[in-house]
Amino acid sequence: MASASCRPRPDMRRRALLGGMLAAPRLARAEARAVRVVNAYAAGGTADIVCRLLFRSLAERTGRAYVVENRPGAAGTIAAAMVARAPPDGETLLYDATAFAVNPALFGPKLPYSAREDFLPVYLSLVTPNTIIATDRFPPRGVRALIEAAKAAPGRIDAGTTGIGSAQHITLALFNAMAGVEINHVVYRDAPTLRNDVAAGRVDLQVSNVPGTVTLLAGGKVRALAHTGLAPVAVLPGVEAVAETLPGFETFEWNGVFLPAGTPEGIRQSLNQALNAIAAEPAVAARVAAMGGIAWPNAPAEFAQFLDRQYALHARVVRSANIRID
Length: 326
What we know:
Organism: Roseicella frigidaeris
Pfam family, one: TctC
Shape: globular
Distance between the termini: 26 Å
Radius of gyration: 20 Å
InterPro entries: BUG (IPR005064), Bug_dom1 (IPR042100)
Protein name: Tripartite tricarboxylate transporter substrate binding protein
CATH class of the largest domain: Alpha Beta
Family: Belongs to the UPF0065 (bug) family.
């Protein structure tokens, strides 16, 4: 799904850029109030883990408090609507993920804010492929075998996700379209229930992301059938890419930081430089890599271009798969 420009730069360029950003000026500390970081997702998930990792390190680096406030619900729109109404003074941030770029197509005019006009993209903090996880009781052992099984029993294989219009739902819809199959989408209210049902064999498949999959595999009872990246995933050795069977297939989940529109450009640029420097710190970079996350230096303009591609891509998938929230 992502173009080559969405993926990390070569290591040599990455090291050079990171080295420069480590010297970026720190944000001003003087008598500053705590910054409110509104996270659109629940505690304990990938977005929450990465958000807290970054802003805890940023607080240590700058001496300013960053308070993460989880406000999940309605595919991230509750948190985004709150930040859209916040004063543009740099003291309220939004930490959001892939659904931010899906929601304009999913909700249309019902969306209580404009994703493009009410926010300033600051920093793309994480990209990670999605995955297809299978219960050990599910016979297919690869993508080709999965497609053959789905064609032999249309509408009889179930795949669970935790949300309509989520990155994982988009992955399933695109897989159905490109493979010419009909795998059922089963929506769960929460990740623990879905994980339990997959482990118990009550649902055949789960569409997840790499960090969530690493955690699940540690508990046994499930296996990673495939990932949706274009390159091998280090933390999932031996797991094939969907693209090996369906050329060009790529989906991923991302996380990013936003400010309310109207925030002074100097605040946005300073925050971007500080977050780039934090991501380059060895302890932070190692933690993200261990989760299966990919991060690289990026400026607000690059993140904005990335989002433009995401808006267009998800609009096409939502429209072609007729994905709706009733």
